[in-house]
Amino acid sequence: MSKKKKFAALLQTAQQEVEHTEVYIKEHIEILDELRDLIRPLSDEEYKQLEQNILEEGCRDPLVVWKDSRAQRYVLIDGHHRYGICQRHKLPFKIELREFENIEAVKDWMVNNQLGKRNLTKEEMAYLRGYQYNRFKQKSGNIANLKQFAGQAEEQPKEEGSTAEKLANVFKVSDKTIKRDGQYAEGLDRLSEGMPGLKNKILKGELKVPAKVLRQVPKMSEAEVAQLRETLLQSPTKQAGSKNKRKTSPAPKKDKVSRLKAEVMQLLKQVEDETLLLQVKKLLQG
Fold it and tell me: Taking the model in full, what pTM does it have?
């Protein structure tokens, strides 16, 4: 066999190995709940539009997969919606492999990747900043990762200062905002524990809950949180009304907000902590 033919055979073998490896990875992609929850939820309209685009043009952008060498697994870290659509319609897709030191480094990358998107609501931005702040306070995150993933920013995170000051420098907000975001994220996580649907509605702005109220949730008892959760879940049902009822003109937005505040105020009458009760009442009336 000539050298040319040997080279062509080796090249073909190498190509087959690459294709086999990629096929294997695609067939063994894993989805971790704790990572999937960091992905921005899409509205029904947004999801339908994405699905239509993929059906018409294919999945153009590669899905990002974490090659976890320690656990010998391949974990999806970006492109969850596209992956679901491609799986359902049996469409081909490309992948981009990335390696990280551990799952905490993956979370740092994912949060910064989400914050780089332009269509985030103010609730989503506050939550993601607060989520990072709470992780860094617990020493789960690594400031070195922020430097790496914010490498294209005009300024790098400062070495000195508190955790809030370092993150404030990265996200271009004040350290007070970062601390408030931390309370907001903690409150939302506690309020929506085991109920991702409730969390998504609040983050997408479909269910309006004052940020000041969510920041008080970490201080509430389990019973108070459960009562607040029940009130919020019942609100959409009350607003929707019965189909058999005569249609009436929609109430002004201000009236809806007033009714929600009134419901929360009624709920807080059962709060035993008078100091906390006065604080929340003051926030709602402000």
Answer: 0.68
Question: What are the pLDDT digits (tens) for 88-130?
Answer: 999 999 999 999 999 999 999 999 999 888 788 899 999 999 9
Name the burial class of residue 187, with classes exposed (0-12), middle (13-18) and buried (19+) by CB atoms within 10 angstroms of its CB: buried
Q: What is the pLDDT of residues 139-154, one digit of tens each?
A: 755 555 555 555 444 4
DSSP 59-104: --SPEEEEEETTTTEEEEEE-HHHHHHHHHHT----EEEE--SSHH
Give CA–CA dist 119/43, Å, rounded: 12
Say how many C-beta atoms besides its own lie within 10 A of residue 105's C-beta: 18
Cβ atoms of residues 166 and 82 within 8 Å: no
Where in 117-243 does DSSP place strands (E)? Answer: none
Dihedral (Cα; 153, 154, 156, 158), 10-degree rounding: -130
Q: What values do phi and psi take at 77, rounded to 5?
A: -125, -5
**C-beta neighbour count of 146 within 10 angstroms:** 23
Per domain, the residue ranges of the chain are 22-99, 101-221
Q: Provide long-range contacts, Cβ within 8 A and 24+ apart, for 273-277.
A: 273/219, 273/221, 276/216, 276/219, 276/220
- Between helix 274-285 and helix 253-268 the angle, nearest 10°, is 170
* Rounded distance between C-alpha atoms, residue 64 and residue 113, angstroms: 11
Residue 68, beta-bridge partner list: 73
> Domain spanning 22-99 has what CATH number?
3.90.1530.30
